[in-house]
Amino acid sequence: RTLDRDLNRDRISADESFRKALELLAAGKIDKAIKYLDESEERFPTDYRVYFKRGLCYAMKDMPEEARTDFLEAVDMANKDEHEETRAIIRRNLARLYYAESKVYAKQGDSRMQEEKLAEAIVEAKKATTEKPDHLEAHFDLATYLAAFKLYSDALTILLDIIPKDPKFAKK
Q: pTM of the prediction?
């Protein structure tokens, strides 16, 4: 009974830290948000939302390794809870991270690493579309990455599939 009460207290405290982190994140105070997310993790380390939001914070701070670690942890935890939409969103953000890294390597003239990161973006985007097939934005992202990889026919096939479902993609 005492253990249950302590666990509940930790969960409530973790939720309070998580909510405070969201407020700070919305206010653009990323470093402070990370501190509250760290506190939330310490109190309740199995909440995938903490890892996802902290991964977003790290991505905003241009800390790709830390972001990737948290995104992968969030996906693993969301897998256990079977949150398909959440997994798709996390994977989409992970794919965006890889795509951004591929652009950095392109600017540096490192075509091998550029292709490697772009291939990783494609893999994660495909997983996102598999997790949540009706997530049209994930399909659009996949088409973008395929086109960047010069797989134009595959990209066009995806675009021709999603444009009738939501015409806003024809404008992008």
A: 0.80
